[in-house]
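Last lecture ended with a question: if I hand you only a sequence, what can you say about the shape of the protein? Today we answer it with a concrete record. The protein is BTB domain-containing protein. Below, first the input exactly as provided, then the predicted structure, then a couple of comments.
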Amino acid sequence: MAPLESGSSQLFFDSSAIDGPFDVYECGTLAGTRVVPDPPPPGTSYGKQRSSRNAKKARRVHGSEEVEDCWNRLFLEGYQADVRVSTGDGSQILSHSCILGIRSPVLRSMLEEARIEHGFRNILISGVPSEAVRVFIRFLYSSRFEQGEMKKYALHLLVLSHVFSVQSLKIVCTDQLERFFLAPDNVVDVLQLARLCDAPRLSLICTRMIVGDFKTISLSEGWKVMRRANPSLEQELLEFLVEVDTRRQERAKRMEEKKVYLQLYEAMEALVHICRDGCRTIGPWDQKLKGSQVVCKFPACKGIELLVRHFSACKKRVPRGCANCKRMWQLLELHSRMCSTPDTCRVPLCSHSPTKSRKRN
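The predicted structure:
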């Protein structure tokens, strides 16, 4: 078969394979040459990928909100409901057994044992207001709640979350109580409820609040009631208060000791600096003073200079002399005990320390 002329775009096929399937293709500008498309502009591919990721994220967020809206509508409209939840005041709330059973193992057991009347399973949730039960069941559907209802029924919902083993609701109630509800006049009551409902974070927050403002809280009505009804809790709180106060005192003592050690270290460094190198206005006799144009990097240098000048002029330079001389003697003795090069050290009396004399002997 003769080749096509250059520049043609005619279609051709293999005539020898006329009885079977054949391939049809288009020639480029040169016979047998592969046509390569032009590359995209710089950054186009990355921009498309980023736009695609943002679009997927937006779709996920929108889809999640849409699903939550559907679950919320399912609760509000009660479509194809098969459960009647009765409350203490006789109100009834329509719901779905599959939703309740999946969210709470306790409700699942109640539904399995519930009697069926006219196609509805009947269960009773009493001991809390009917509106609190309604907020509770709505949360089981969509994990949604109104802020005003949560503030009003947070304690009731904490009890329901514990009774029916809904851990996600317990976490939400703990957060809401911590942020909007706790106060000195109710923290003792919330603490007792948190311990009964197995809410360790809320219990810890209440305990810290009581320790932090013990004088005010110990005069509240809740503390007085707790003292009569639960004296063991009062004893536990008092022991914790003593423990916290002890830890605070130990921490303050360690900080004070650290401060003293830092001051001693700076004084020792300044003493060696003055006796070895000299500073702006004081130094060894064979060193030239540096003058006021040099900034001293030792913070205790000025204080040690005043102490050295006093020590050199004082008439009571004995260990039991004046307070300043006594400090100077202590500083010299401390340096002599810690110095590792007494033979070359230029600090006065370093090599004449009684301790080092005994070691040499």
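Comments.
1. Confidence is low (pLDDT under 50) at residues 1-32, 58-62, 356-361.
2. The two ends are 117 Å apart (CA to CA).
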